[in-house]
Amino acid sequence: MSDEAKCIKETIEETLAFQGETVEKVATQNIFLNQANNRTIEEVIRSLSKSNIYGSSLKQIVEKGNLKEVNHDTLKRDIVKAIKLDSFDSYL
Q: In the predicted model, is pLDDT for residue 77 greater than 80?
């Protein structure tokens, strides 16, 4: 995974660790996610777990080549949700 993709995941994980940070707020305010190109977003999505609904559905979008057709705001929100669930699963 590229440094850019790692940075996106790490900053989202760290931001979500603060109480009161909503998924929507993180998705709209994460500078690295907002400036990422499609290749980097694909890398982040490929690194997500298929064990949660958001990671699984995002991976399907990438596998079908439909990344450009998905609303960017929805995509960012689902990436943050998937990372949040991945992080939560790692604590269990």
A: yes
Token pair in block for residue 2:
């590229």
Spatial separation of the C-alpha atoms in residues 72 and 78, rounded to whole Å? 10
**pLDDT of 89:** 61
pLDDT in tens, 18-55: 877 899 999 999 999 999 999 999 999 999 988 889 99
* Burial of 80 per CB tally in 10 Å (0-12, 13-18, 19+): buried
| HEC-encoded secondary structure of 14-30 | HHHCCCCCCHHHHHHHC
**The pair of three-digit structure tokens given for residue 62, joined into one six-digit string:** 């990438």
Q: What sign does the CA torsion over 77, 63, 60, 8 have?
A: negative
Cα 53 from chain centre: 12
